[in-house]
Amino acid sequence: MIVLTGPSASGKTETAKYLMEKFGLKKVVTCTTRQPRRGEVNDVDYHFLTREQFAQGKAANEFLETAEYNGNLYGTKYADLGPDKVVCVEPIGAHSYRKALGDKMFCVYLDASEETRLARMIELRKDGVEAAQERIRRDREVFSDDINGAKSVADVILTTDGWTVEREALEVYEAYQTWKAKHNL
Ligand code: 5GP
After folding, report:
1. For the chain, is the Cβ count within 10 Å smaller at the N or the C terminus?
2. 123 and 36 inside one domain
3. 108 and 166 in a common domain
4. pTM of the full predicted structure?
5. pLDDT digit string (tens) for 96-131?
6. CB of 47 closer than 6 angstroms to any ligand 1 atom
7. Is the CB of 93 under 6 A from ligand 1?
8. Which residues of the chain form beta strands (DSSP E)?
9. For residue 27, what are the β-bridge partners?
10. 88 CA distance to ligand 1 centroid (A)?
């Protein structure tokens, strides 16, 4: 299983999509209490839950890990894990995954400069300029330590400035194959 982590707009989601479309990996659909963005589909992009549904799942110990990010709850259910699946989580989540799964996961930290990430948010995701700048600022404050920490739990760190999504996905896939071979998988 591949765990992709890194700051906002580091390319996690697009890389995961490409890995699924071109390399046949399956997605670990995670849960969130945030509202769907335009075009997002329930049970495909996320399991979109109410706070009450989320709390019920937590009380029933269905979650491997949960996190709060930008005022919304996120979490992964054990039932949604599986081999040759890919998941995108923020850095704190990567720590929780490592704790729960040990060396049964391959973790890639996707890194990119703030300039690159801001441009991706505005040009590719069509986020508003102010919202994007705020997100970058918040990431810097909230996650600076954990981003460094997540780098320490990653098996591989890729700096993706100037890379296409094809390049990102290929680099991740090749590193995953090497990791699998090393672990006789
Ligand atoms: P977004 O709201 O932009 O889709 O996601 C916000 C952040 O939450 C992203 O970094 C995303 O990867 C992360 N995220 C998505 N699902 C989970 C999850 O199950 N657990 C954790 N810890 N983070 C998640």
Report:
1. C
2. no
3. yes
4. 0.86
5. 999 999 999 999 999 999 999 999 999 877 888 999
6. no
7. yes
8. 2-5, 26-27, 31-32, 47-48, 63-69, 72-77, 85-88, 106-111, 156-159
9. 86
10. 6
For ligand 1, atom 14, the nearest C-alpha belongs to 89
Tell me the residue range of the domain where 14 lies.
1-28+81-180
Query: How many domains, in total, are found in the chain?
Result: 2
Between strands 26-27 and 106-111, the pairing is unpaired
Using a pLDDT cut of 90, give the percent of the chain over it.
75
pLDDT digits (tens, 9 = 90+) for 41-98: 999 999 999 999 999 999 999 999 998 988 999 999 999 999 899 999 888 889 999 9
Residues 41 and 6 in one domain: no
Closest of 60, 151, 44 to residue 98, by C-alpha: 151
CA-proximal residue: ligand 1, atom 9 (nearest): 90
109 and 151 in a single domain? The answer is yes
